[in-house]
Amino acid sequence: MSPSLRWFINTIPVVAVFLMTIGIWQIVVSVYEIHPIILPSPLGVFETLWEARVELGKGFLATGLAAVLGLGTSLSLGVLVAIGFSQALWIRRAFYPYVVFLQTVPIVAIAPLLVIWSGYQLRTVVLVAAIVCAFPIVSNMTTGLISIDQNLRDLFRLYGATRWQELLKLRLPHALSHLILGLRISAGLAVIGAIVGEFFVATNATDFAGLGTLMTGWQNQAKTSAVMAAILVSTLLGIAMLTSVNLLGGVLLRRWTRNADFENE
Amino acid sequence: MNRRFWSWLLIGACLFTTTACENDKQSAGGEGSQEGRLQKVTLMLNWFPEAEHGGFYAAKLHGIYEKYGLDVTIEPGGPNAPVAQELLTGRVQFAIGNADDVLVFREQEVPVVALMAPIQDTPRCILVHPDSGAKTLSDLKGLTLQAGNGRPYLEYMKAKGLLEGVKVVPYSGVPNFVANRNSAMQGYNFSEPLLASQSGVDAKLLMVSEIGFNPYSSCLLATEDYIAENQDLVARTVVASREGWKKYFESPDETNAAILKENKHGMTPEALEFGVRELRPLCITDSVPADEVGMMTAERWGTLVDQFRELGLLEESKVSAADVFTTDFINRTSATD
Asked: pLDDT by residue (tens digit) across A75-95?
């Protein structure tokens, strides 16, 4: 099958589901004469999307920046922490529960505290995003680093590899696919974290308002269709982040491992 | 598989239709009750129960609603209380909202009408830290202001150039305000100042009404349709609510105790006592004596509508001041008595 035909066949169901959902939504709104402040029609939402395209575009960039920075922070710190964890069982036993804490902490309750400690600025938003996406990265990376085939480890020992060489040439390459799996989960979470952060930090001091800021403002003005347009854009941002991670993952895996079949998993 | 899919779809459709019908029934049921029995209505608040809702609670507590044949359930609100949505769906028949909310709803083509306005002058104020040096609303430059993003009064201040160099951040409460001397926060003059002083900061109050933005507050609202179909019931609700407000200012203690019981969000007896004391002069003014509590004028509404249009918050064609309020029921008071 040619790639373009395969792409076509893969795309049809996605588009069909989209059109069907939009269709049902539009029919329900028209038939039951639902007021747009309760549930706007899809056409109404698209109309608002177009009218507010400049603000939403800037919001996409602002929130995207915070999400990327948050994900990046989490990635760099998370990898270091995971490497630490992979060194000894007692380290994992002592510290892993605190990583689980990051997963279970209700971020909306922590965010106001972070504002008090870190102030009304981008850094605080990045921090919220980083906390939200930390767990999948640390957890997956740690698993990847420690779940090494015993035969391969024996081979490394046999050749007298140092701990450092074992980490660099065996554990890290092996952990890469796990890390990317974690990043895929965290990519979407980073966007959620950034938006939650903006709910609490949002300020006119930066050049433009993020999606979270736009949402609260529009909510205060009872603009339901605008809020929904912003939600739509934030899902697009999540998809963009996820796609970037997938592309990056594909490239890295093809280069550093033999597992080039990643995308078909 | 196929058959199961269709049966689920059918079940879904049935559920949807029944809920929709039930809503219709509820909204139609307002006027339909028999003579001698109390008519049930629900009044939704725009915020947690506070002094600003005192008159409505007084009317319920002291049996005034009952005297007028009404059984009123007061439903507390909170942040982002969906007042307009609840009125539209008919889940509630009446709601409380400020005059600026009314115009915000109108811009979204929600036909709500203000029936009475207990609070004549808006309690909206900006609290500034005593060490900030700010004396008027023109001195906010360099401060961090906690305020509700997108609120009309904020848009008004922005248009007046009062927010230049001001860092506007989301409302997060008194602790952040107290902690930082270069800070300011939005508030109601009968609420936040007490909390700040209890935390050891005697905040300076800068009233937003002084710069010419003065929407009526705690207005009683209903939809155009509901008012048209339930004239008598609406009239009785307005009359009883106004009596409730008079009663609240005469003897607020019992009502405050009732509000305290309803408010699960850190309300204290002191805050309510302070609240009603500060609220009174905003409700009973030189032009509106106690007997006329709740009164509204076309001039005031006209000013607000003009301001909204200038700010670009209300489209020219959408509504005129005369559509958004009515004094018919206030004026009917003596006739009903």
From this structure: 999 999 999 999 999 999 999
**CA B305 to CA A245: how far, in whole Å?**
50
Count of Cβ atoms closer than 10 Å to residue B162 Cβ: 22
Bridge partners for B325 per DSSP: B114
For residue B270, with 0-12 CB atoms within 10 Å meaning exposed, 13-18 middle and 19 or more buried, which class applies? exposed
Which helix (H) or strand (E) segment holds residue A155: the answer is helix A150-158
Q: Which of A200, A213, A222 sits opposite B172 (nearest CB)?
A: A200
Strands B144-146 and B167-169: parallel
- Tell which of A27, A215, A220, A225 to mutate to test the B interface (max B CBs under 10 Å): A220
Give yes or no for A223 touching B (CB within 8 A): yes
Say if A30 is an interface residue toward chain B (CB within 8 Å): no
Q: How far apart are CA A105 and CA A96, in angstroms?
A: 15
Q: Give the DSSP H or E segment for B73.
A: strand B70-75
User: Please, are residues A25 and B16 in contact by the beta-carbon 8 Å criterion?
Assistant: no
Beta bridge partners of B112: B223
Question: Which of A28, A218, A224 lies closest to B150 in CB terms?
Answer: A218
What whole-number distance in Å separates Cα of residue B31 and Cα of residue B333? 20
Q: Cβ–Cβ of A199/B313 closer than 8 Å?
A: no
Q: Do A222 and B149 touch (CB under 8 A)?
A: no
Average pLDDT estimate for A237-258: 88
On chain A, the residues whose CB falls within 8 A of the CB of B109 are 35-37
Using CA atoms, how far residue B69 sits from A244, B14, B240, in Å, is 65, 37, 10
Instruction: Kindly provide the ipTM of the predicted complex, given to two decimals.
Output: 0.81
Nearest alpha-carbon partner for A134 in A83, A77, A180: A77
Ranges in chain B, pLDDT < 50: 1, 14, 17-34, 334-337
The pLDDT assigned to A4 comes to 85
* Secondary structure (DSSP) of B31-68: S-PPTTSPEEEEEE-SSSS-GGGHHHHHHHHTTHHHHT
Which of B108, B148, B167 minimises the CB distance to A220?
Answer: B148
Over the stretch B127-165, which tens digit does the pLDDT of each residue have?
A: 999 988 899 999 999 999 999 888 999 999 999 999 999
Total residues found in chain B within this entry = 337
